[in-house]
Amino acid sequence: MKYFALLAVLLLIGSGSFMLLPTSIGKPVLSPPQWLHPDTFTSAKQQAQDTIKALQAQLHKAAIRTPALAESSNSLQREAPNTTTTEVFTWRDREGNWHFSDTVPEGLGRSVRIHRIKPINTVPVTETSPSAAQRPQEHFPPGDSVSDLLKEIQALQKKRQQHQQALDNL
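Above: the chain's sequence. Below: its structure in token form.
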């Protein structure tokens, strides 16, 4: 592995020397203008500027649309979000088992870790009208009863067994 690193360093020094050491005319053998096209830097700069302008235009459009979307949406809260946190205490006993609790155990002192957990993805409860809260009633056709349904199930099971026997005989 150390020979690989040494080889890499020697390769970098060897290739870099062509770009740094001057020749008899006083210039390096390879200078950036010789191995890079002159338009490379200008075209990259132009592409970056075009991208920044496009992003700024999209950001401006989004800033214009945001208040209208917030007003039209009934699901957005108008009040401040709930910022209360819950504390969870963790500790490891002598056998190496981890314990989690919402109360501090006595006598453990500094070995207890405190985790503060913020509520995530909570939605406040909204009142619904009594008619919307009721479940729709299922209507069965007249004459259907549990015994009739059981008879149909048994008939289907018998038919399935007959089909299976016919397939087994093939």
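Residues 147 and 153 are 10 Å apart (CA to CA).
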